[in-house]
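Weekly puzzle thread! Below is a chain. First person to post its structure in token form gets bragging rights.
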Amino acid sequence: MKNNLLAVGWDVGGWMGSNHGFSILNWNYEKKEYSWLGKSVELKIPDQSTFSLDYIFKKVTGKNDFKINDYQLVIGIDAPLSFPSEFEDFINNRKKIFKRPEKEIYNKLAYRRTDVHIYEELGKKPLSAVFDRLGTNATASIVHVNKWMDEYNFSLQPIKDNKSGRDIIEVYPALLKASKYSAADEPFKSMLPKSVKVGTDAYDSALCAVMAIAYGAGDQFTELPNLIGPEVIDENIKEEGWIYYFPPELD
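Winning reply:
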């Protein structure tokens, strides 16, 4: 195992705006210490291009030659990394009959099983990549996830595990604070860099990085418990993915 884990947090914005927040945490396995690299930033997708990891690391750390391959990597992304399977069936004409659900959250055209799980377990309803304005964020994130899986051999957990030691996970930092523009709850608030402003995309990206480091370092990261993943990785979970989250008593 590499001696250091880099946890990248990405609060995803739209295709055209300068509202993509990025933060990077470093975890040293030997010293059992974490530190923030550079400073959190807000970026736009380069014209006629996409984000490369080298570009992101340069903007966050200020270094042109950061050697990513020397580290274990986890990326925590705040955006849907998949669409509801029944929505995909619907737009591809594989399923035509649907009925009005009891509640909006149970509309399988709009919400994945992991979204319903978050609602039922934590009382928070994620935005829908289909029904809300989250579609632009979702497509931007999925394009980059596919790109990074091809270029850097990342696994997309729990959809596709390459056993590479490089993982991408979907996270939901809104669970860690009372509202969009409020500070994070403790103990997360104390872990964030002092320079990052509450209520910004950069702030949320730092929360994503905290969730990513908890996932990557696991039991060794004693400041926080492990993130909760799916109890059973069945075909639905492999198709629709999962939002990783902290145990409810911390939210």
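Puzzle host: Confirmed. Bonus trivia for everyone else. The longest strand covers residues 20-28.
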